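User: Here's a chain of 163 residues. Predict its fold as tokens.
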Amino acid sequence: MARPVEKISDINDNKELWKLAVRVHHRWNVVSNNKVHFEMIFVDKAGGDIHVVVPAAHMSLFDKKTRIGSYLHGSAARLRQATRNNKLICNNTLNCTLWESYVEQFVKYNQDRADASVPIVVLLQYAKVKEEGKYPLSVTNTYHVTMLCLDADFPLVKEFIDR
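Assistant: Prediction complete.
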């Protein structure tokens, strides 16, 4: 009997093998210490996502199979899901560093908005959060995979602005 397809949200440390059906949502190359590897974001049917790192030694096995939008179905072994620390920050300033086209998008939005006294709600998907410690809590975009939404027309954003 075939094993059922599992959701990304089901991944845990209790076992080492899962049967997944995912789509490659984002993919990018990374150069570190003069070695190239690639990283991806997989998304399953339920909307769960996971960050995947393919080391240089395995790139040839996955390069042609993992184009953006392609679907993968099969077993995945020894996956680790990054812990997600969700912190609500109210009435505080959060340091945010944006690079390249993200800066241009933010600056244009800030110049074009009608009321500069109203705070901007910034939504970042696939961003890097730097924990408090030596430096204050901050967030930055990561390569070209971060999705930046400014004062997005979402009910949750409207509710937050109205508070």
